[in-house]
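Let us work through a complete example step by step.
Step 1: write down the sequence.
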Amino acid sequence: MTDCIFCKIAAGEIPSDKIYEDDKVVAFRDIHPQAPVHFLVVPKEHIKSAADITPVNSDIVAHCFEVIAKLAVQKKLENGFRVINNCGENAGQTVPHIHFHVLAGKPLGETLV
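Step 2: predict the structure and record it as tokens.
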């Protein structure tokens, strides 16, 4: 999608504070962090939201979680971390490209569950 900010970040057209990249995903620090550790994992393939996951593209979601697990080890998040995906406008999804927020570095509480 040509006007998608996350597609542009994944393509290197918009700068970001990347912490990981491979042929399928990019991970970068959130520009408005909500915790001491707050980064996004975004597939390079444009998928609008979790509502658009299919048997054809579900492997990319599994890969996103594999990357999250790898980054959690690298960043020494052994005390825990939270993964958030907002799906749709009413859930707070502001960029129509599936992405996963990873937050850690302080007690996050139970109020968001």
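Step 3: interpret the result. The two ends are 32 Å apart (CA to CA).
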